[in-house]
User: Fold this.
Amino acid sequence: MEYENSHTQMAPSILYWGTPVVLLSTENPDGTANLAPMSSAFWLGRRGVLGLGAGSQTARNLRRTGECVLNLPSDEQADAVDRLALTTGNPCVSAVRATRGYRYEPDKFGTARLTPLPSETVTPPRVAECPVAMEATLAAAHPVAADNDRESGKIVAFEVLVRRVWVHDEIRAADRADHVDPDAWRPLIMSFQQLYRLGPRARSSRLATIPSTSTGTASTSRSRPDLEAPGTVAPPRSGRVSRTGGTPGTGWPTRPPIRRGACQSAGDRRTSILPMLPPRIMSRNACGALGRPSANVSR
Ligand SMILES: Cc1cc2nc3c(=O)[nH]c(=O)nc-3n(C[C@H](O)[C@H](O)[C@H](O)COP(=O)(O)O)c2cc1C
Assistant:
């Protein structure tokens, strides 16, 4: 066989194979805005899953306020992203981080030379220069590596619910108000700690023949599509967790109501994270299918 000896074993120091960069804006305890690059991010339905160091200022802010904006830079913002590398909004820089070159930076927007724009459903600002900005609220925090004594507690997978999406007109599809043109959208990619741009489309995809659908109450306005899912209530403009009916004393927002479709059983409360779980612990629903199809993801 041609590929029989094509692999050799290795132990990579990191497994950063290539994911989009997100500039996460959150609110610091003193009311100023923090802005931090991260890239361990992926999307499931209307949710984002963000892998963050538990000690970062962003993780602390997200836990405390339950709010963030996920700004997606294009390759044109690579310099701005790099200006934020090795900075933290946490005034207490640990010795380990200081050795790695990190420094405290209270003015992240100024340092990056990016422009804050007010958000509408959350307090942290959007980044004007980023072609995509998603206002989001915290839905859950999942421990990562809880089975490993040395790593336990150091990384958290934050699950955030996207409340409002803003895009630059240049990346909108010409024919559909609820579609982004993937040939126009040029995300900035972090791969093995280096910053990359996407090349051209490799080929037409048969996956794209499946129509994607939106289940949110999408408004007809092109400038302010409302992604609020039916049955959920957006927090007020400056709503913090404690002021918006979050679970008292926990600092966590109230879980949005779970809507059940015909194929979803009452006990199927883990569906939002099911695709992340190994098959052996996925439960079968009433239709005998594993989990349930995500609301608007065609894959
Ligand atoms: C391109 C890039 C990608 C990064 N990706 C992540 C990531 O996915 N998760 C993470 O915890 N930190 C990531 N970092 C490091 C954070 O930016 C760093 O921890 C920073 O101190 C966070 O800022 P904060 O302490 O003000 O929140 C990344 C940094 C850069 C420059």
User: Anything to note?
Assistant: Residues 35 and 237 are 19 Å apart (CA to CA). Residues 21, 34, 36-40, 51-53, 56-58, 81, 85, 88-90, 190 surround flavin mononucleotide (CB under 6 Å).
